[in-house]
Write a structure and sequence with these properties.
Elements lengths: L2 H15 L7 E4 L31 E6 L13 E3 L5 E7 L11 E7 L10 E2 L6 E8 L5 E8 L4 E7 L7 E7 L2 E8 L5 E7 L6 E7 L8 E5 L13 E6 L2 E6 L6 E6 L7 E6 L12 E13 L5 E12 L5 E6 L4 E5 L3 E6 L18 E8 L5 E12 L5 E10 L10 E2 L7 E7 L9 E9 L15 E9 L17 E2 L10 E8 L16 E7 L5 E9 L3 E8 L6 E9 L2 E9 L2
Antiparallel strand pairs: 1-21, 2-30, 3-4, 4-5, 5-6, 7-8, 8-9, 9-10, 11-12, 12-13, 13-14, 15-16, 16-17, 17-18, 19-20, 20-21, 20-22, 22-23, 24-25, 25-26, 26-27, 28-29, 29-30, 31-32, 32-35, 33-34, 33-36, 36-37
Length: about 575
């Protein structure tokens, strides 16, 4: 690490640790046992549920789950964006209203039209499984692999698809004696897994590797991380791979944030503590510093640089100089890369009432996940409590986005990409690959009308919508640029959605050969973009004119239009696309 970077890190840590008597703190963080997925939970009185196709939040409900839990800490990879208009999804789902959730496992779907439509979710494994991660073998044309755990047997199951998008799965291996796994696929047919070992609570972090697409594993449950400040936790780690480069990050509650880096496909590793925090006896009474809340993520950008995210609690030294963790609206989500050192991505909403966040183990803003576009811009999604409560006074959470176009040195203002009220948006995840020209993030999250989740006994067991959401066009706020001429047709999801009274709709028209054979001369005729009600009646014409190739955004002012579900359709020559939007007043 060069001297300038060392000074930057020291300056940031001085700010973080020099906050005595200034941070706003809520309740003390109580230790919670990690959810294993093997528990048989006591059934609450069932009070009914809404249809699985009912969209409380923006996006499309592609299915539902009655096991409404995503992770104890770090987000799981739920989407693979292949960059060619196809997207694969794998979610931890159960479909039955039963305390034992007997069909819980990895449920899969594959979209051939950029997420505009999804076939029904279908189960991957035969038995009851959980903690799903999905990735692809680029060397095999994008064939997907799915990793899950069987906590009852205390091992992991690795499944490979017959072909990209086929949804025909073969269980190739039972791996190790660890659980809560994360999956990354690198060079050729190399499979990399980081997992938690030693029971509940975990006592170690383990690494496993297969050189042959999961047929055999030449490394199984190798204990990793030797730094004394690195603590093991359930779901408190992540892994990423690019070519022969692999990175593992650990960020358990109250422990150091550390990375292991390999440039030779996992043969050798370099360990580095990137955020050193006070341990027992090391934090003076009343002194404050931010310490990880057990959630982190890692990604490689297009230049091969590693980016790490983690969220934090507030630690305060007690009479014995031991750090005690508290919820705090001052505790930020942090980013690290070799070139920037530590930077602050986002804080929880300052108007959040100080109370106990329901249904998760992290702080008010937690579970950050990250994607990258071809230009190297960073796109972060995370969950944060909002100033909206249910009838019992429990606060909902929504999905927020922050962006950076300078490798994480500076970050945009925050966007609530699930605006509205009366619903919970949780356990979000973003595809590692963000589409360019213009940027489009592919996001999944859980949505229902109750704060928290049934697994942690915050409400009755219900059908929770598994949501898919596209988040377009925000990168211009951090100086990003887009190509002037798109390469394909696209009709983007409106934003915000639901909305009142105005929303933006983006669409793209590519350059094609016209009747004279000249590139860029189009035969679209009139391009029409119109809004229709549920009976097919046209309620607004937004575009009806000849258009040149390019990316466009049009604003619809729905003042005077009744609340409800509407459809908007784009027609350009032989291209026709339609999406749904919601007016809420």
């Amino acid at each position: 690490m060069n001297s300038k970077l060392v000074l930057l890190v020291i300056a940031i840590l001085c700010v973080a640790t020099g906050m005595a008597a200034s941070a706003i703190k809520g309740p003390r963080v109580l230790s919670r046992a990690a959810i294993t997925g093997d528990e048989i939970l006591s059934q609450k009185v069932f009070s009914g549920h809404y249809p699985s196709t009912y969209n409380l939040g923006p996006g499309d409900s592609i299915g539902f789950t009655t096991y409404d839990y995503g992770t104890n800490g770090s987000p799981r990879r739920t989407l693979v964006n292949f960059g060619d208009g196809t997207i694969a999804m794998a979610q931890m789902v159960s479909t039955v209203l039963d305390a034992g959730t007997p069909d819980r496992g990895s449920w899969y779907s594959y979209s051939v039209d950029g997420g505009m439509s999804w076939p029904p979710l279908a189960k991957v494994e035969v038995g009851r499984r959980g903690w799903t991660s999905i990735d692809q073998f680029q060397a095999a044309g994008g064939v997907e692999a799915v990793l899950s755990h069987d906590f009852g047997a205390f091992n992991m199951e690795f499944n490979v698809d017959a072909a990209k998008g086929a949804g025909v799965w073969t269980s190739t291996a039972t791996v190790g004696a660890s659980v809560w796994p994360r999956l990354a696929i690198g060079d050729g047919f190399s499979v990399h897994i980081v997992s938690s070992a030693g029971g509940n609570p975990p006592t170690g972090i383990a690494y496993s590797r297969s050189p042959d697409a999961g047929t055999t594993f030449d490394i199984v449950d190798l204990p990793i991380f030797t730094s004394p400040g690195v603590a093991a936790g359930a779901d408190a780690q992540d892994i990423a791979a690019q070519g022969s480069n692999v990175v593992i990050v650990s960020a358990n509650s109250g422990g150091d944030v550390a990375i292991l880096s390999s440039t030779d496909n996992g043969d050798t590793w370099d360990e580095q503590v990137i955020y050193d925090v006070a341990g027992l006896g090391e934090l003076a009474e009343g002194q404050e510093e931010f310490q990880s809340d057990g959630s982190c993520s890692a990604v490689f950008d297009q230049s091969g640089n590693v980016h790490v995210l983690w969220s934090n609690f507030l630690a305060v030294g007690d009479i014995s100089n031991n750090p005690v963790l508290f919820y705090s609206v001052d505790a930020p989500i942090m980013h690290w890369s070799e070139s920037t050192g530590i930077t602050t991505v986002a804080y929880p909403s300052p108007d959040t009432t100080i109370g106990l966040p329901l249904g998760r183990n992290g702080n008010y803003a937690t579970q950050p996940d990250m994607g990258v576009d071809l230009g190297g811009s960073l796109f972060v999604v995370y969950a944060s409590m909002v100033n909206d409560v249910d009838t019992a006074g429990n606060y909902f959470q929504h999905v927020f986005v922050a962006l950076s176009s300078d490798e994480g040195l500076n970050w945009t203002n925050l966007y609530d990409v699930t605006p509205g009220s009366g619903f919970d948006a949780s356990f979000s995840s973003v595809a590692d690959v963000v589409d360019s020209n213009p940027p489009v993030m592919h996001v999944t999250y859980h949505c229902d009308p109750f704060p928290g989740n049934w697994v942690q006994m915050n409400h009755d067991q219900v059908q929770v919508a598994v949501m898919y959401l596209q988040v377009p066009g925000l990168i211009e706020d951090v100086g990003g640029s887009v190509s002037e001429v798109p390469t394909s047709f696209s009709l983007l999801q409106n934003y915000p959605n639901p909305f009142n009274p105005m929303t933006d709709i983006g669409y793209q028209l590519p350059a094609i050969n016209g009747s004279h054979g000249q590139a860029g001369i189009t035969d679209y005729g009139f391009v029409k973009l119109a809004v229709y009600d549920m009976l097919g009646r046209e309620v607004a014409t937004l575009v009806n004119a000849e258009k040149q190739p390019g990316s466009y955004t049009v604003t619809w002012d729905a003042t005077g239009v009744a609340s409800g579900v509407y459809f908007y359709r784009l027609t350009a020559g032989n291209f026709v696309a339609m999406r749904k939007l919601i007016v809420v007043k």
